[in-house]
Amino acid sequence: FSMLNYTFPQDSQIQRIFESILTPGLSEFSDDIKQLAKPMVTATVDLYNFMVNNFKPTPVKCHYLFNLRDIAKVIQGMLYADVAFIDNKESMLRLWIHECSRVFSDRLISYEDRDKITSAFTDLSSQHFETTYDEVMEAVADKSLGPIFVDFMSEPVGDDSKKPYEEVMDIVKLRALMEEKLDDFNMEPGFTPMELVLFPDAMCHIARITRVLSQPRGNVLLLGVGGSGRQSLTRLASYIVDYKVFQIKITKNYRTMEFHED
User: Fold this and answer.
1) Which H or E element spans position 122?
2) Angle 128-134-145 from CA coordinates, rounded to 5°
3) DSSP, res 165
4) How far is 172 from 148, CA to CA, in rounded Å?
5) Residue 122: its pLDDT value, please?
6) pTM of the model
């Protein structure tokens, strides 16, 4: 039995690694956006340190664990930025806030904890980006929901088969699109029809699930009481991004062999 252990890299090393990844990814954007590469990486590292210091795992919050993967996930989300839809500094910063919210804030289980991370965004905006959090969020469709980015609103641009990752500027349009997809789902042969009310929180959950499913090796754990819609929203989100859903069915004779087959 061997135990291998290594110390967490220094902040300067992490920043150098991710700057070298993010800077080429923003090379096609305007100059004011290119200049954001370094401060966005620094702000992400600062936010990570804030999460580690302020949100410790407890028996009730045992999933409050953060590591280098979380910083990588934020940078990965930034690389999905599309030059056709992000044309100014504020829209890029909204994407950064969105990715940080998905990676860090979605793990938090109380409004009090989420208020803390919002105050962290406020401090980081003035400290690293020479702007205020309110100015960045001014153009958001619904400030109570925060920025929402999805990759199923528009068709692929040019020869690229990848759908653009864009900000939702109209909640009504998003609801209409999801309701249309839900109607299509309900007409699919072999599918069990779902009667869902797509209120704002439900739409945000669907957007979060589609984001994870669209990423390489994306995986997500949905926590909640039974009947809160986790399975239904996952089925609709999977349908929107053209994934097939497979679910293990437990029977009386379900053993290890059946599990391995599944």
Assistant:
1) helix 111-128
2) 110
3) B
4) 13
5) 93
6) 0.90
Q: Work out whether strand 166-167 and strand 149-150 pair parallel, antiparallel, or are unpaired.
A: antiparallel
Q: How far is CA 209 from the centre of its chain?
A: 8
10 Å CB burial of residue 64 (0-12, 13-18, 19+) is middle
Whole-angstrom distance, CA of residue 151 vs CA of residue 166: 6
| 10-residue stretch averages of pLDDT, the chain, 262 residues long | 88 94 93 93 96 93 92 94 90 95 92 92 93 90 90 76 87 94 93 92 94 90 87 94 89 91 91
